[in-house]
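Case study 2.
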Amino acid sequence: MGKALYRAENIMLMDLIGTVTLIVTIASLIAASTPTPKDDVWMGKFYKFIDMLALNIGKAKEKGNV
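Prediction:
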């Protein structure tokens, strides 16, 4: 029974890692393919959330239209 539990935990962990990787990848694609909206509108707040999911931090972030 111990081996079966170990396998089940590994499968769940691999599913979790796969799901997190999928979320980061999709968020990165969205963030890279859309212009940065203004922060004061709801789309800007949503974009900040997408940036966070995409792990866009520091110099990886788009600065917006200057």
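Residues 2-56 form one domain.
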